[in-house]
Specification:
This is Transcriptional regulator. GO terms for molecular function: DNA binding; DNA-binding transcription factor activity. The chain is mostly helical. The protein has a single domain, classed as Winged helix-like DNA-binding domain superfamily/Winged helix DNA-binding domain (Arc Repressor Mutant, subunit A), CATH 1.10.10. The radius of gyration is 19 Å and the shape is elongated.
Amino acid sequence: MPSVPSDLYHVIADPTRRQLLTHLAEGEYAVGDLVDALDVSQPTVSKHLRVLREASLVSIRAQGQRRFYSLEPEGLREVLDWLGTFVPAPAEPSAAVGQVGEEHDDAAQRGALAARRQHGVGRSLEQVTERAQEIIDRFAKQRFGRRR
């Protein structure tokens, strides 16, 4: 089973940082745009972006006085791999579905693949966040140890 450094869990545990990651999954943003999108102060956004940058989850690009941030999806790969151990594998497609899939032309397949790549990181992050919340909720309901 893959392991993930505990500090990475701490980084993505914060709701503001998860909101930042969700926005950055859509593309590159300037700090001011993220401040407006999250409706929090600029120092708060900058603090959380610094934490995300130190965890290699976002990268920064300077252009004049402005700083642009973008998601580094490989930083989340460890988390996705670990959470994948809790998600059941998809069912095998039937033979009929396979035949229909083979009849699509190459252009349609390339287009679908490009669309999945473009939206895959954001959707994967949403799926991971939802699944992580389900796991957290389930464990929060359980009581550990003996009551006296």
